[in-house]
Write a structure and sequence with these properties.
Helices cover 36% and strands 23% of the residues. It is α/β, with parallel strands linked by helices. It has 2 domains: 156 residues, Response regulator (Rossmann fold), CATH 3.40.50; 140 residues, Rossmann fold (3-Layer(aba) Sandwich). It has an 8-stranded mixed sheet, sandwiched between helices. The chain starts with a strand and ends in an 11-residue tail after the last helix. This is Transcriptional regulator.
């Protein structure tokens, strides 16, 4: 049973499922908080798909609340979740890490899971995708197709490991490649991202990596109009234009949520900060564009397999810690 809470009212969406009894180490029900919407087609949608996967796999009721972008709304949501016997909560972003630490002692029967933060309490966990390797492979792909030897990244924040990964991968593939990096300061600022894109195009950049989940579609659409290339982000975005999107760096938040739910149910979910990569089955590369030579695709697939098997990238190094 999926239950969506609006700010002032609660609507039950009957999709099946049953509630298990309250048992230590087992999930009773699961909840999801998203800062914007589950209908963005990228990050929010991935979280919602993960919630549906948990419902199907573990036969529990699942609940979600949208627009959870303030501490007060989060506190109210957790109080409502507790009334519904939710004991595993996913805060779908780094904005939840701090407030989860603050309220953890008030919800000792819940395990609170967030992204890209610092979980400090016994019942809090923060998840991080190690994006360096996916950025590296994305950079290699971009550098293999550039005609101007000028590549661009439009990232949300400087701490994103995929940014440096992209730079290093591009330089490994093409020693002449120059990577220009711009930041928006927010995952969802489409207007800012498009302004940054104009600046990159003016500098003869012909492949762009829009590493932000709320604006990458807008950026890719504009790149399509200008005849430039893109590397997709978060989801496989080849459907936006297979001759525009060379490949995508895919973060499977949906699969990660199911993985975490399994660990929680088995009593194996650790508190603190956990990191995940290709080897965990939650990061992958998307489809390669038909404009990319078959030989390069074969080479890339071999590099990815070697990284999964050995933990080492094509340059012989492991991702930085």
């Amino acid at each position: 049973m999926i239950m969506k809470f609006f700010h002032l009212s609660m609507i039950l969406l009957l999709l099946g499922g049953c509630t298990a009894g309250s048992r230590s180490g087992e999930m009773d029900n699961a909840g999801l908080l998203v800062p914007e919407t589950i209908d963005d087609g990228v990050w929010g949608t991935k979280g919602y798909q993960g919630l549906l996967g948990i419902q199907k796999e573990f036969d529990v009721k699942v609940y979600y609340k949208e627009g959870m972008n303030g501490d007060t709304s989060v506190r109210h949501a957790l109080d409502e979740f507790e009334k519904e016997d939710v004991n595993l909560v996913f805060g779908h972003g780094n904005e939840y890490s701090s407030i989860f630490n603050e309220v953890a002692s008030e919800h000792e029967n819940m395990h609170l899971v967030s992204f890209n933060g610092d979980a400090t309490e016994k019942n809090t966990t923060s998840l991080t995708f190690n994006g360096y390797a996916m950025g590296f492979f994305g950079g290699m792909t971009a550098a293999s197709q550039t005609k101007t030897d000028r590549l661009g990244v439009i990232a949300a924040f400087s701490w994103q490991p995929e940014v440096q990964g992209f730079i290093d991968g591009a330089r490994y593939q093409n020693g002449k490649a120059e990577v220009l990096v711009e930041y928006t300061g927010h995952w969802d600022h489409s207007e800012v991202a498009l302004d940054r894109l104009d600046g990159l195009l003016d500098q003869d950049v012909d492949v762009v990596y829009p590493a932000g989940d709320g604006y990458n579609v807008a950026v890719i659409e504009k790149l399509k109009e200008s005849g430039r290339y893109a590397i997709g982000y978060v989801s496989d975005q080849s459907d936006l234009g297979e001759t525009t999107v060379l490949t995508s760096t895919v973060q499977h938040a949906d699969k990660l949520y199911e993985l975490i739910a399994g660990k929680y149910t088995a009593g194996e979910l650790e508190s603190g900060n956990l990191e995940f990569d290709f080897q965990d089955g939650v990061i992958s590369m998307g489809e390669f564009s038909p404009v990319i030579p078959a030989g390069f695709k074969t080479e890339m697939n071999q590099h990815i397999k070697a990284y999964v098997d050995t933990g080492k990238l094509p340059n012989g190094k492991e991702p930085p810690l």
